[in-house]
Amino acid sequence: MKKVLALLLALMLAGSVSACGRMQNREDAKTGATQKESTSEVSEPTPDASDETDQDNKENLAVPTERLKAFLESKDEQNEILFSTKKDIDGDGRYEIVAGAGTKGEDDLSTYYSSVYVLREKGDSLELFGDNLASGGYGIYEVQLVKLQDSKSDYIYLGLTNGGPLTGFQLLELKDDSLNPIAYSASATGSGHDYLIDENSDGSFDGYIQDRSSYDVLYIPTIRSFAWENGSFVAKNTSVSLPEYPDVVQDVILQYLTLRAIADGMSKEITPRLSELLLSDPTTELPVDVWYTAVSNTLIGIDSQIEFKTQESANQATSQLSYKDGSGKTYAFTFKLVKSEGKWHIDTFF
Fold this sequence. Notes:
Layout: H1 2-42, H2 49-60, H3 65-74, E1 80-87, E2 96-103, E3 112-122, E4 125-129, E5 139-146, E6 155-161, E7 166-175, E8 178-185, E9 192-197, E10 207-212, E11 222-229, E12 232-240, H4 249-262, H5 270-277, H6 288-300, E13 307-312, E14 316-324, E15 330-340, E16 343-349
Parallel strand pairs: 7-9
Antiparallel strand pairs: 1-2, 2-3, 3-4, 5-6, 6-7, 7-8, 9-10, 10-11, 11-12, 13-14, 14-15, 15-16
């Protein structure tokens, strides 16, 4: 009997302890949930490894402003820093600094960069790549890092202008610690608008446009398009705005020479007009580079010009052309023309 009572007492005691244990566990759980809710409301989250990495990256990408100012002063640059960025632009794991100083204008085109440098931190100093990118040529009004389609690297973009009717650009690549020109597009005439394009609007440029109408295209409004393919820009299309068909013998010849000089085989407008101006395929070689200069001089009215001696009847004409280049060499051609349906056409030339 005593053994039975002892056994019952032991079972009751064990149940009490177990119940107390279960209650404590529930209270702990309740207290933990409350603390967690309270913590999420009033405390900042504990930084993890990725947060520390982001902070390190921010510090790594910080441009050393004072050191950069000291470098610019060593180059006698007194203007303010208009652009500076620090980035691994060539993908080799090392950070470069692209910085430019100058004077800020009232608008983009009146901004002027007097110096643009590509640098890399090396201990307590700055290592320079190349020379001042703003030395010589057209003025720089914009500096940026840009992406080209399917390229991992960043490219240095320099917006160019003469402060007047010209805009253009230059692209440079940093490769193997050397600055290499990728593209330069700006008319030597001081007129025209050349610009990068992003046709698929994905944030990476995939081509550029040349919009010209000065003496470099012999005053024929011309738009040329280029596409970025396999690491280089490739000419894709040329579109021109043709003038009216001429009604004077001399102008027929001049328009033929003009279109021959600027033809690149990619314009759907030029080819049919040339076929209309010249009825048969040319059998005489025409030195286009020589006659380009001759036509340009004639259109502008300077230096040596083309001299015409023309004999004309109702439906036929013969015109003798001569041109003396800068070295004193004379070029001469004879053009024979016929009139059909009220238009003069070149039958042949020799």
